[in-house]
Design brief:
Elements (H helix, E strand, L loop, with lengths): L4 H18 L10 E2 L9 H15 L2 H14 L32 H14 L6 H16 L9 E2 L9 H7 L7 H9 L5 H8 L6 E3 L16 H11 L6 E3 L7 H7 L17 H7 L6 H4 L5 H12 L1 H16 L24
Antiparallel strand pairs: 1-2, 3-4
Length: 349
């Protein structure tokens, strides 16, 4: 029986698609390992670090954004680079669009790093691994080297990115302590690790929409002078960003509203340290989810512990970031090495 040219072309296309899908490696195929790219792409970690340091020198906010991206990627579908994907026919509403992900940034830096790595080693290094390397290097730079850990690599980039999943999986800034504890427990993180990771709020910014409720909370939950400062900042636009750490605010603003903290104001912002815990005990933290840690006996004990011992927090934060970076993709997931971090290489369907 002879087949028409059209049918032959269709069969070839189907076979090609099947072959393409068959070559997509399983996310479980490789165990993560330190030095994974030692022979596959020699020097890749140095390339990432060079770009991260360059970006931070230009704008330290970029470092805080990279640290945040690690958490927001890995807490949803594991560390698969899904937070980096732009809207597409396969992912019409990606994680970037979730309200809980407002203000995510540094995507351009990761694309710049990816392009440099692709030029060096085409098709070898995943965007998800690049993100972990970059976040680690940013945390180290912002902490003057006090936060550091060896990154096990070998991750694949996922195909799925859904805003509703991010909204459901990520902790919300309005959550009470038990909601936070339950949220972190679903990812196998303890109360202590919840407190440790929340210490990252010593850097970065939040939008007023993320802490609107704080603007009217009672003095038992927020120092009135700091509440006045937040109200002032949020009146400056429709939904302006506000520094997470009062230490990073404009000196004149702090002097006007919280004069007792002017001695803590730094000319260089986003220094990753244990200042969050001091601020929280003084009730001058931005989010309700920050303050609520003080309402739980064990969590409060850890807040006090890390306020008193910054070196211990540096070490424990490093270990917690490492644990976070090992969160796996959902069982049975497929992955690839993206050519660009914002788009998949091909459609699955």
């Amino acid at each position: 029986m002879k087949l028409s040219a059209a049918v032959l072309c269709a069969l070839v296309a189907v076979q090609a698609a099947a072959l393409l899908l068959a070559t997509v490696p399983s996310a479980q195929a490789k165990e993560l390992e330190v030095g994974y790219y030692g022979k596959k792409c020699k020097g890749v970690e140095n390339v990432v670090k060079w770009h991260v340091i360059k970006a931070i020198k230009a704008n330290r906010r970029t470092g805080a954004a990279l640290v945040r991206l690690l958490f927001h990627d890995c807490f949803v579908r594991g560390c698969d680079g899904s937070v980096l994907l732009d809207a597409s026919s396969d992912n019409p509403h990606p994680e970037k669009e979730a309200p809980v992900n407002i203000g995510l940034a540094a995507f351009d830096v990761l694309e710049e790093i990816k392009a440099a790595v692709e030029k060096r080693c085409p098709g070898v290094v995943s965007c998800s691994d690049i993100l972990i390397y970059a976040a680690r290097d940013a945390a180290s730079a912002l902490s003057n080297g006090h936060v550091h850990f060896a990154v096990p690599a070998g991750r694949l980039d996922g195909f799925v990115s859904k805003a509703d999943e991010a909204q459901a999986e990520l902790p919300d800034s309005t959550h009470d302590v038990q909601q936070l504890i339950d949220n972190f427990a679903r990812k196998n993180f303890t109360v202590e690790e919840l407190v440790i990771l929340t210490g990252a709020h010593s850097i970065g910014q939040g939008h007023c929409s993320s802490f609107r409720g704080r603007l009217s909370e009672p003095s038992s939950q927020i120092t009135p002078a700091y509440r006045d400062l937040l109200n002032y900042k949020c009146s400056q636009g429709s939904n302006p960003p506000v520094d997470n750490n009062v230490r990073d605010e404009d000196y004149d603003v702090v002097a006007k509203f919280v004069a007792g903290f002017t001695s803590r104001v730094r000319k260089i912002p986003d220094f990753l340290d244990n200042s969050f815990y001091h601020n929280n005990l003084a009730k001058i933290v931005t989010f309700h989810s920050d303050w609520t840690l003080l309402t739980h006996k064990e969590a409060l004990g850890h807040v006090v512990e890390y306020a008193e011992n910054g070196t211990l927090w540096d070490e424990d934060f490093s270990e917690s970031l490492l644990k976070l970076s090992k969160l796996p993709m959902p069982a049975g997931s497929k992955g690839e090495i993206r050519k660009k971090c914002s788009v998949v290489n091909h459609r699955l369907y």
